[in-house]
Design brief:
The strands form three sheets. The chain has a ten-stranded mixed sheet with strand order 5-4-6-8-1-9-15-14-10-11, sandwiched between helices. The chain has 14 helices and 15 strands. Strand 2 and strand 3 form a beta hairpin. The protein is an alpha/beta fold.
Length: 418
């Protein structure tokens, strides 16, 4: 057990996670998702999309009508539907007395990679059937495609009158949404934050087509084995959708209402590579990890689990492993895992889902594995990399979550046991 330096801060400055709501390709609750991760159950399946044809993807199958009506689904967006499901599930999980919560002091901070592509592609495709006569263009287009849509639809659905907005941060967005929520609580802008990331990426052919043109779209005869970070036979990204939203509160408020607490957001950092459109910069990634550790007042050897970002691309995995080796050299008790090997790359939701998958380790002491590592690439070798089967630790106190994105945006979140 380590002494958590964050406990030196007053309770009103400490931000904790009290609720989790998620939709993943292999689970529609934290317990389902965790069970799949511990038992090696992939959520990747065969998928077909316009113009691209047959491919592979991580597709969610949650109950869309649990919190929305059919009319609302037709009017709204897939990203918002994912977000509405996750937000309502998170509030329920947190045990908030929702009818009596001051909705003007609830903030919604949703990380997204992109938004509006699905609706625009679909509407242009449908307009073709009307000889591109724009009088047939959907009057729902503008509210569907504005950048704040996923957060705004959550606000409408749940009657939240506090601030809502999205945080565009490429594939670092899940962490970025969580970071924004924590910052707004510390500033006193809200008393409850609904924060994390969502993605509708599998609904847009443009994403698949772009990865295919880069030679970065994964293929495999067995869908469950297609996403294979760190393996010598990895051949690209499996596109996935999903979401994971957290209820964040000040520790003082959580204690006052006797809430269960998953963990404390003890440190975080974001920075930029400023070096390439898509190729990661291991020096900048390492600096981001080190900054988050300094802010959490922790040393690398105190980290129990590192959730890697690794997407299964030939160069990206190597670059991240270079960064991790430079930071965690000699940290013999630090283990590394990866959730994309199970579900693919959920883009804006990736970071928040991957953190969520590790949070139960505080309770059960188990590190879920990276699956599909048949032959480890020597350039991706990490001491402590957990492959193919879960491993038990005596105790987990610190989880570090990496999440990086195109145009060189990096994010790291550290969560500690309370």
């Amino acid at each position: 057990m380590i002494a958590n330096p964050a406990t030196q801060r007053p309770d009103h400055e400490r931000i904790v996670i009290t609720g989790v709501g998620l939709a993943a390709p292999n689970g529609n609750s934290l317990s389902e998702f965790r069970e799949a991760l511990l038992n090696g159950r992939s959520g990747v399946s065969e998928y077909e999309i316009r113009y691209v044809g047959k491919t592979l993807a991580g597709v969610c199958n949650f109950d869309e009508l649990r919190y929305q009506k059919k009319k609302e689904l037709r009017r709204g967006t897939r990203a918002a539907s994912v977000g509405i499901y996750c937000a309502n599930e998170a509030v329920k999980d947190a045990g908030l007395d929702w009818p009596n919560v001051d909705k003007s002091m609830v903030g919604i901070y949703i990380g997204v990679t992109e938004h509006g592509n699905v609706e625009t592609e679909n509407e242009i495709y449908e307009l073709r059937g009307f000889d591109y006569d724009t009088k047939f263009w959907s009057h729902h287009h503008n509210p569907r495609t504005v950048a704040n849509n996923p957060a705004g639809e959550i606000s409408l659905n749940m009657g939240i009158t506090g601030p809502h907005y999205t945080v565009g941060a490429a594939c670092a967005a899940g962490n970025a949404g969580l970071i924004q929520g924590a910052q707004m609580l510390r500033l006193g802008e809200c008393d409850v934050a609904i924060a994390g990331g969502v993605s509708e990426s599998v609904r847009t052919f443009g994403i698949f087509a772009s990865f295919a043109s880069q030679g970065a779209l994964a293929a495999h005869a067995e869908p469950a084995k297609a996403s294979r970070p760190f393996d010598t036979e990895r051949n690209g990204i499996v596109v996935a959708e999903g979401g994971c939203l957290y209820i964040l509160e000040r520790l003082s408020d959580a204690k006052r209402r006797g809430a269960k607490i998953y963990g404390e957001v003890a440190g975080y950092a974001m920075n930029s590579d400023a070096s390439d459109f898509v190729l990661p910069n291991p020096v900048r990634q390492a600096e981001c990890v080190q900054l988050a550790l300094r802010r959490a007042r922790l040393k690398p050897q105190q980290v129990d689990i590192v959730s890697t970002h690794a997407t299964g691309t030939s160069s990206g995995d190597v670059q991240e492993c270079m960064a991790l080796r430079s930071v965690f050299a000699g940290a013999e008790s630090t283990w590394f895992n990866n959730a994309k090997s199970f579900i693919g790359h959920a883009m804006g939701a990736a970071g928040s889902l991957e953190l969520g998958g590790n949070l139960p380790a505080f309770a059960d002491g188990v590190c879920h594995p990276t699956i599909n590592v048949d032959t480890l690439d020597p350039e991706c070798a990490l001491d402590g990399l957990v492959v193919n089967e879960a491993r038990e630790k005596n105790r987990v106190d610190v989880i570090l979550n990496n999440s990086f994105g195109m145009l060189g945006i990096n994010s790291v979140v550290i969560v500690t046991r309370i």
